[in-house]
Amino acid sequence: MYRLFAAIAVPDQLHPGLMETQTGLSGASWRPEENFHITLRFFGDVSHTDARDLDELLAAISCPPFELSLEGMGWFGRREPSAVWARVRESDPLRALSAKCDQAARRLGLPLDRRPFTPHVTLAYLHGTPLDETRVWVERHHAYRSGSFWVEGFHLYSSHMGNGPSRYVAEADYILE
């Protein structure tokens, strides 16, 4: 079994600005810069056969390159914050690419992702961080803006858990054209 997800890697030139925000939040498990990505679709645990078929379906996706940028911050978890993140500016091409990844998953009969697509870059997972403190952190970084960047491809990643942060490995690369 492979734990898989499709995602766009965050360009290296955006890493320093994101890392500057990674302070001042109790209970935060800050993500290393090599883990910065924008998830298109989380597939979960997938068999070897389904992983091969998923790779073929993702490789067949047709989508032109498009521009993205990050702006502002947010958090998941209404009463008990579980993560803080940088918001991806609204993008129809991004939503379309995510929908195509979701279609590939549905064609294989993979479980539905019941969470709405909220494009973001996870900066930290939170453990016991008070809601008020999370709100203050998000407000302090509300003016965060990245430069725009071109998305010319995406990846199928495997996720490997162990001691410390998960390790993500790009198993396949897909070019947008």
Summarize this entry quickly.
The chain has 177 residues and is α+β, with helices and mostly antiparallel strands. The protein has helices at residues 15-20, 48-59, 92-107, 131-140, and strands spanning 2-9, 28-30, 37-46, 66-68, 70-76, 83-88, 120-126, 149-151, 153-160, 167-175.
Plain-language structure description:
With 177 residues, this protein is α+β, with helices and mostly antiparallel strands. A hairpin with a 6-residue loop joins strand 5 and strand 6 (83-88). It has a single domain (2-175), classed as Cyclic Phosphodiesterase, Chain: A. The protein contains four helices and ten strands, in the order E-H-E-E-H-E-E-E-H-E-H-E-E-E. The protein has helices at residues 15-20, 48-59, 92-107, 131-140; strands at 2-9, 28-30, 37-46, 66-68, 70-76, 83-88, 120-126, 149-151, 153-160, 167-175. A four-stranded antiparallel sheet has the order 3-1-9-10, with helices on one face. A four-stranded antiparallel sheet has the order 2-7-6-5, with helices on one face. Strands 4-8 form a two-stranded antiparallel sheet. Belongs to the 2H phosphoesterase superfamily. ThpR family. The active site is at residues 37, 120. A motif (HXTX 2) lies at residues 120-123. A motif (HXTX 1) lies at residues 37-40.
